Amino acid sequence: MPAFDVEILGKIYHIDIPDPGATPLQVIVDGEPFEIGIIGTEVSSAPAKPAAPPHPAPAPVALPQPPRGTVTRPAVPTDTNGVNTVVAPMPGTILSVNVVVGQSMDTGQVLCVLEAMKMKNPIRATHPGTVVEICVQPGQTVPYGEVLIRLA
What we know:
The protein has 152 residues and is mainly β. Helix content is 0%, strand content 39%. Among the domains are: 3-36, no CATH class; 84-151, CATH 2.40.50.100. The chain contains no helices and 12 strands. The strands form 3 sheets. Strands 1-2-3-4 form a 4-stranded antiparallel sheet, with no helix packed on it. The protein has a 4-stranded antiparallel sheet with strand order 5-12-10-7, with no helix packed on it. The protein has a 4-stranded antiparallel sheet with strand order 9-8-6-11, with no helix packed on it. The chain is elongated and about 90 Å long.
């Protein structure tokens, strides 16, 4: 069965011709059958010129790196009483609160889960401490920077 790949307006189509002598001509384009009526005289069957080689991929561009020692995340706000606040890193909805007031926390422990753009984002303790206040509840929508939990 003759088969061809053709380019039409920049898009490549795969064409199969089950019976080249059939009238009307039956062709299958990317798996979908079509009937084609041939009008006029026969067109030359000379092989088409070879396709141009693909353009080489552009070289990767090196992005500037921050200098060593640069803080890449905002500092945890601390008030005058030594209480650290955990704030929403993005707007979203609180799915769960995983701590209670008075609970001791270890670094990396999940405090709550924030859903943003259909992604569940665990909000973790950045340092050890004790939960002194929970400022949100499940189902609550919070903006960027909203205080979620206070740790001492």
